[in-house]
Fold this protein.
Amino acid sequence: MSQDLVIQVHDAGTLDWSVIDRESGNTLRSGQAGKDEAPDIADRSGIDRTLCILPGERVFLTRINLPARSEREARQAAPFMVEDELAASLEETRIIPGARAADGKRWIMAAENDWVEALQQRLEPVLVRPVYTMADYQAAADQEAALTLFDRRGDVLFWYGQSAQQDGTAFGGAVDPDLFGQIAHAIVHGASGGDVAVSSSLGLTGAAFRAVSREDLAGRARRMDDADLGDLPPLFGERWLSTLDWSVVLKPLRYTGALAAGLLIAFGALLGSEAMYYRLQADRFDAASVAVFRSAVPEVTRRVIPAEAERILGDRIAALGGGETSSFLLHVTALSELTAGNERVRIEGIRFDQARAELRVSALYTDFADFDALSAEAARLGIGLEDNGAREGEAGLEGEFVLRLR
């Protein structure tokens, strides 16, 4: 069973709402809300669209042929096409074009922007997508008449039918009953002699006049064709025309998205910090490499870079029978970095095994736990250590270990 939620907003700020069965036209539930109050519609199951009927005093509606190739161009051009017809400035007015019809024309709806925003915020908790907005004088219209005059609780709504419409000018409006008597002739004259559908309570009679049905605005609005509703401007925004509420769909993903973004930022920061750390470590290793080279080859006094220092030292080791160029310098540099500032471990001797690419180190420990601390520091620096044991000696606690570069 298809149901419409019809909300009729009054100029004074109050509103009426009703849930209507679309097929039978029966009103299933109804209620009212005071000024600036949100309607209390607890059960919205079965409702599959919302019709918002806005007061004619607040809404300007016309239809024009917009020379626009896209929806974006239409939104940009619409304000300038109706600017002369509006009572307020463009900056204060929300001007929305509807969908382009087969004849190239579009509905243009305008209303005070602050009023629309306040109303939208008030109604959003109960709106059911899709949401269609219309002026009450359009809902009151008799589609076969050149002019409709409808009694809305004393005020008079008027609407010019298709035969009397003038593109770019207001197609309808709302008139105070005290003023209507003075301008009724001018309004009727705008119908150009066509039929006039009029509420009997207005007391207008004549050959061209016929009675308009007594159906209320909510009932008249729900009988509008779906195609006609789809052409109306989405005053509350195009997102309310979609039956899919993306905010509801995406809401569960917001926390996940925020968490993922946080993790991504943290991961990026970690990578940046790690890169900076390794860059500093590399600079320290390079400086230590050159220092070891200076100590081993004091006759070379010119400036050398770490790669050159390793090559020269490797050539000298090879000349002594060490075979191919080794990574001796890198291992010694790593050992120097490992023991820098460590007063509990004293290096007594080193032996480099080029074939196995490892440095065998003899050291004096202050305590048996010193090697454990040395291993922890090696793990932090990315250096591999293998303990070959320690024993009490004449000079102290003598230990040996093997250093490998990972």
In short: The radius of gyration is 43 Å. The chain has ten helices and 17 strands. The longest helix spans residues 246-296. The CA atoms of residues 18 and 30 lie 4 Å apart.
